[in-house]
Amino acid sequence: xxxxRGGHLQVPQLVDELIPCRPRRKRVHRSSLWHVTPTRPxxxxxxxxxxxSGRVDRARASAVVGDRARRTPACPAGWNTRAVPTPWTxxxxxxxxARGPLTYELVDQAVTAQVPEADDLDYKAAQRTDExxxxxxxxxxxxxxxxxxxxxLVGVAEAGTGAALTISHADVELTPQLEQQVHAINAVxxxxxxxxxEVQRLENPSNLGxxxxxxxxxxxxxxxxxxxxxxxxxAAPRRNGPHTVWLxxxxxxxxxxxxxxxxxxxxxxxxxxxxxxxxxxxxxxPWFLGVAIPRNPRPTLLPSPTAEQVIETVTRSVSLDHTSVxxxxxxGSAKGENLQRLxxxxxxxxxxxxxxxxxxxxxxxxxxxxxxxDDAYAELxxxxxxxxxxxxxxxxxxxxxxxxxxxxxxxxxxRGATALVALAAAWAESLAISGPIAVQATALPRKDIPTSAMxxxxxxxxxxxxxxxxxVPTTIALESLEVVTSDLLDPLxxxxxxATAVQIAEDVLHQFGVRNLEILREHNG
Length: 525
Fold this sequence. Notes:
Layout: E1 4-5, E2 8-9, H1 11-18, E3 23-27, E4 33-38, E5 45-48, H2 59-64, H3 90-95, H4 104-112, E6 121-124, H5 131-146, E7 150-154, E8 156-159, E9 166-169, E10 172-173, H6 176-189, E11 198-203, E12 210-217, E13 227-228, E14 234-235, E15 237-240, E16 243-246, H7 249-278, E17 287-294, H8 307-326, H9 334-342, E18 358-360, E19 363-366, E20 377-381, E21 386-391, H10 396-401, E22 406-409, H11 410-430, E23 437-444, E24 454-462, E25 465-471, E26 484-488, H12 494-509
Parallel strand pairs: 6-7, 22-24
Antiparallel strand pairs: 1-2, 3-4, 4-5, 7-12, 8-9, 10-12, 11-12, 13-14, 15-16, 17-21, 17-23, 18-19, 19-20, 20-21, 23-26, 24-25
Helix pairs in contact: 5-6, 8-11, 8-12, 11-12
């Protein structure tokens, strides 16, 4: 298959061939392109980088190749499984059921109780594959996302109106193709793509292989979403009770205003959290400081996360960090020896005190027992936000030569970036938060003197031994750095975590004039 045409992702042409493949994304260094590398040979696609806010539009490529499909019997080994959300749906509310996973039994109870369609609940008797049916499903997905999200059940029929309305079972065959079709339609026919749609198969225990397909549509931060109508016009649908209507021009204007306001609020929240922690940091070393906030935050009305969740999250983040950095590198290889010398999960610096997290204002705080914050520090907020900061020590002999300089070691910035991304992914996984995560990071000068120029340093080595640290020859002395921003699109995907960490590390280090990374070397030019 040849899918590279002019550097743009040919979405409609790729969808039938790429959906069965599980991709791995990697960044092409110093390029405006993202390379999609599937685990099966012969599938290649190129996606163009967005020109807005320095962020990369990888979402469309991610969804096209079925990034959100869970493992099925027909899928090759090695696919990532995804956690199904634990939602509070219209079905739960109508049945007065406790919050928990949706099951076929709950759907059966809803049919028995004749729970009608609503703004956030839609029924479909079957999922056909003809063109009108695909257009209808795209409209239903966009309409629900534009109305605050909800649940679409394929395999439940609704007939009649008013007093004659009846709800009945219409079980469908639960095949991998059924799930893949949902993601393909979302990728190709909805603009912009709806992030974090989850599909779950609810099997009828009395008729194995058949049942209901549950499609969870989130309240999308990217609304309004558009689809092509039958007359060829691009329009934005919205749920209005059990019906679908088209947004008028003024309503579209308000929807865009709401989207831009959400972006501004996100930026303000990132800045507020970052500055709050910045003010608490002390010590004689410079700092790595990073913040991550989910685009779909956890609702504040849910029960607060527990200390046990925090402990499990930090432990899990160390594992994710290690996996993202090492990948499949043999320990005896040259690259493996380099990693053993330079790399260690930065979150392990908290291992002496993360088992006793402290409560804060709608957050858990991980820090040493008392005194000023001069060691590794983390915050895990109840809404899914994460803060990670750790000091960047340097060789005392080097510091003695320039007493007021803040020396920033290249590999420590990489370690901070991978640790931040892993911690954000692990916390989102623990809280069952799906969707992209906005990530910000920077390096801060030491806090013990009013002004301190920062310089990048790297080790001088001889074989496996580190002799000393020295200033990188091309480095630029800086009193402050710009805060860099990226998006972690799929927290559970190893390649996406790595790509996000690489972008964060490069964007920080390039400000010093540093060209090459030390740990994530295959991304260097």
